[in-house]
Amino acid sequence: MTCVHLKKLYKFCQEENVKIGGTDLVRIVCEQCGVQDECPSMLMEQLEAKEAKTTQDTAPLATPDK
Length: 66
Description:
Helix content is 45%, strand content 9%. The chain is mostly helical.
């Protein structure tokens, strides 16, 4: 379970539109609690879903051949 400090960090990232992720493992450690969190995949999943929706919304409409 993520500690309150890491939850604040994740909330800040969401509010400020800061995305954490990459192809390598991301490990975040709270020095206050000693809690370690790996791969905050929730943020990346949200970004990927948003990008997929944007791609769908901006895709050109098919026009019939004349």
